[in-house]
Design a protein that fits this description.
Helix content: 40-55%
Shape: globular
Distance between the termini: 37 Å
Strand content: 5-15%
Largest sheet: 3 strands, mixed
Number of domains: 2
CATH superfamily of the largest domain: Winged helix-like DNA-binding domain superfamily/Winged helix DNA-binding domain
CATH architecture of the largest domain: Orthogonal Bundle
CATH class of the largest domain: Mainly Alpha
Radius of gyration: 18 Å
Number of strands: 5
Structural class: alpha+beta
Order of helices and strands: HHHHEEEEHEH
């Protein structure tokens, strides 16, 4: 899907909830859609957005991200010392979108295979709990941080 198609789809989500795509929201959205950097902090989004839109404020970025999160446009990822990072949400990725997080450099690698379907079904049945989603994070060291220490992956 192109950037313009994504924006049109998100405008529909905003209109459905009686919001509009302000110039500030659009600037932030374009950064999220166009950036090669995944999993950006609000401060990183602010810095990149401000390059083209110097009038934007950090508070506006936070408010916009909060709104986008509440509408399911972005997902917030809490990474302890790494803080909160944001990525565009996608219905196709829900449930099959997990993260490998390097404890040394902070790199976040996406893992797009879900190996938990059987476990989730068992938990749901045993607890009588309707599971709608889950999130899985693995912590360790990426290849770049492991190599200088000659550590093997497992």
């Amino acid at each position: 899907m192109s950037v313009e198609q994504n924006i049109a789809q998100i405008i529909g989500v905003l209109k459905e909830k009686d919001f509009r795509l302000t110039p500030q929201r659009e600037a932030i959205l374009r950064i999220l859609l166009a950036t090669e950097i995944n999993h950006m902090t609000a401060e990183e989004i602010y810095t990149v957005t401000r390059e083209k839109n110097p009038e934007i404020g950090l508070a506006t970025v936070y408010r916009t991200l909060d709104l986008f999160e509440s509408l399911g446009i972005v997902s917030r990822l809490d990474f302890c010392e790494g803080g909160r990072k944001y990525e565009l949400a996608s219905d196709k990725e829900r449930h099959y979108h997990h993260h490998l997080m390097c404890l040394s450099c902070g790199e976040i690698i996406e893992f797009n295979e879900d190996l938990l379907d059987e476990l989730e079904a068992r938990i749901a049945k045993q607890s009588n709990f309707k599971i709608t989603d889950h999130s899985l994070r693995f912590f360790g060291y990426c290849q770049g941080c492991r190599e200088p220490h000659n550590e093997s992956p497992a």
